[in-house]
Amino acid sequence: QVQLVESGGGIVQAGGSLRLSCAASGSISSFALMGWYRQAPGNQREFVAGISAGGTTVYALSVKGRFTISSESARNTVYLQMTNLKPEDTAVYYCLIRRIGHPDYWGQGTQVTVSP
């Protein structure tokens, strides 16, 4: 079974930085893409950033230029480097792994809180 372990969340002042990580383990040989979503209280879960196994990246407009997604494909690990954080970035961040011919798997979520 695939397991996703997330870490790196916390509380930071506006303008600060955090780096999230997500490592996939279990019965997995490769991934098509890995990414991050977030969900703030009362909101729908929204896309933040994604990266393909080949290194192609996509960002939500709200985070483009501030967040950077990267991966270590051989280790099925994805990172989200967040800089110039804003209070509106406060949310639970969820890791996603997508593989060809397999269902999506989600991490348990990690809380990011940005104070004014």
Strand segment tally: 11
* Unreliable sequence segments: none
Helicity level: under 10%
Order of helices and strands: EEEEEEEEEEE
Biggest β-sheet strands, sense, barrel: 7 strands, mixed
User: Structural class, from helix and strand content?
Assistant: mainly beta
Our measurement of the CA-to-CA distance between the termini, rounded to an integer number of angstroms, reads 40 Å
- Indicate the proportion of strand residues: over 45%
Principal-axes shape call: globular
Radius of gyration of CA atoms, rounded to a whole number: 14 Å
Q: How many H/I helices?
A: 0
Instruction: Report mean pLDDT, rounded to a whole number.
Output: 94
Compose a concise summary of this entry:
By secondary structure, this protein is mainly β. The protein is built from no helices and eleven strands. Strands 2, 4, 5, 6, 9, 10 and 11 form a seven-stranded mixed β-sheet that branches. The chain has a four-stranded antiparallel β-sheet with strand order 1-3-8-7, with no helix packed on it.
Describe this structure in words.
By secondary structure, the protein is mainly beta. It has strands at residues 3-7, 10-13, 18-25, 33-39, 46-52, 57-59, 67-72, 77-82, 91-98, 105-106, 110-115. The strands form two sheets. Strands 2, 4, 5, 6, 9, 10 and 11 form a seven-stranded mixed beta sheet that branches. Strand 7 (67-72) and strand 8 (77-82) form a beta hairpin. The protein is globular.
